[in-house]
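Complex record, two chains
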Amino acid sequence: MRGVCTRSGSLSAADFYASAIYFSQRWNETNSDFPNWVWIPCSRLGAISEDEGYLVLEKIKLQTERNDSNLEELNNCDSSANDDLTDEATLVDVHSHDAHLYDLHIAYSFTYKVPVLYFRGYKSDGCHLSLDEIKEELPSHSVEILQKSKWTFMTQEEHPYLNTPWYTLHPCGTGDWMKLLLSSTSYGENISLIQYLPAWLSVIGQTVGLRVPLELYSRS
Amino acid sequence: MEEEATKYIWEGAIPLQIKLHESEITSFPPPPPLMILGLRIGYLPLLVPPLKAHFSSTLPPGTDNVWFDYKGLPLKWYIPTGVLFDLLCAEPERPWNLTVHFRGSPGDVLTPCEGEESVKWSYINSLKEAAYVINGNCKNVMNMSQADQYDLWQSLLKGNMEGYLKISSKLKLGPFGEDSLPSEESEIVASSRPSRIPVRLYIRSVGEEIVDIEDAPIIDSWDKISYINRPFEIYKEEGGYVSLKQALKSLLPETFNTNSSQEESSTNVKDPNAPDFEDDNAKLRLVRVQGIEPDMDIPFFWLANCLRNPEFYLHICVFISKQPKLR
C-alpha cells in the first residue's frame, strides 16, 4: 500500500522498493567509477519476491582515516583534478595492499517502516573487522555523530535475509530525524517519496564514511 | 481466561538434557549431562550459571564463549527456548537433547552472546520494537525507570509472573485490538492508523511426500527456515473477526496465492528465471504457538492476547508443504 508518509518520516514497503530502484539507477548513472548498488530480491520458500528485497554495495572502500592519508598523496599530485562533487573515495588507489573493504546492505524494516543499513568490514586477507576496528577507522566526524546522537547507535544483529551477524545502525530513531530532514526547506514541501533513499543516505552515509555524490540529488 | 493463559505460558518449561561437547571434556569418566528445565519464555544462555557449575571441573582452560547446538545446528540464543523447541523438533523430544559448548562460538553464523547482559539487551530491544509496532513509538519503554527495567528483567529471569505483570501493565501495551472490533462507540471515528500486532513467524518447508510431520528431516542449517519479523496489520473498518488462517495468509501473501488470483494477475511482469511457484498453493501442515496447535479458525486477536511472549511478540512456528504445480 503506497503511503504518503513524508510527514511521519517513514515510508511503506512499496515506496521503499520504488525509491531503492530509483536510487540505484541514479547512483549507477552518476557514479561510474564506483561499483553499482544491486537490488537483491528476497527469496523465500522457493519463491522470488517481486518487490521485497534489499540493496547491496559490496567490496568498497569507504572514506576512512586510512584511506584519507592515501588520498592526501594523490591530492598533492594533482589538485586541479579534484572536484568537490566527486566521491573522493574513488580516487584512492584500488590496488593498495592493506585496503579494508566494506559490504553495505540496505534493507527495509517492517516494524519501523524505514530503511536500515547493515555493514561488514574485511581486512585484505578476508578476516572480518570487529566493531572496534571499524570505529577506529571511521572519520572523526562519524564517530562524533555516533557518540553524540541519541538517534544512531551501532549494534550487531542478524541480517534480516541472510543468517549471519552484521553491524547495523539501529533504526528506532530514523523516522524522527527523517521527518526533520524531509520537512526542512532545502527539500521543499513536495519532495516525492522516491527521493527518500538518497535523502536518508545523505545522513547515514556520513556515519560510515560513505560519500554520496551531489548529482544524485538533482531532479532529473 | 487470559490470566489463565498467561499463567500457562509462564509455567511452561521444556525438560532439557544438556551434554558438554566431547571436545571440551578433559576428565574421565566424562561428566553426565545436566537435566534442567528451560522456561518456554526464557533463553538458553540464561541456563549458563547452573551449566557452568555442573561442568566447570572438566572444562579446558580458557575464556568462556558459550553456545548451544541441537544435532549440529548452532542455536540462535535470542529466540525463546520454547520457540526453538516447537520449530526444530517436529516430533517433540522429551527430554530435549542439546549440546553446550564453552569454547569457539561460530562467529560467522551466530551473533556473539556475552551472557546475561546480551540476552537482556536483546529482550529490551524486542520489547521496544513491540511497543513501536503497537503504539507507533517506543516512549513508554524508553522512559522506564532503571528500577522498573531491573525488576522486569529479574521477573523474567526467575519466572516471576506477578512481578512481571506489575511492571508490564504500566507500559499499557495490551490487550491487542480491542478497539478494532466494531462497537457502537468505535464507529464514531475510524482512525486512519491500523491496529498492529507484533508477530514473528518461523517457517519450515516440508516435502509433500512427508506424510507425518513428525518424520520431517532434521534442520541442519538456518537457511532452511524462513524468518519473518513483520507486524500483522488490520484497518479498523475491516475489523471484527480475523481468523488465525486469515492472518497467516495476509502475512505470507506470495506463499498462499491461489490459482484463481493468478489468472487475474497474469499481466504481472514475472521474473523469467523465477520458479513457477507463484502458481502453487502452499499447504499449511502444522502451526505451533507455545507448544499448542491452535485451531485455524481461532480469532487471531484472542490468540495473540493469550499466547504472546513477555516481550509482547507472538511467535508462530509454521510447517508448510508446497503443492505440486497443476498442469
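Note: The longest strand of chain B covers residues 314-322.
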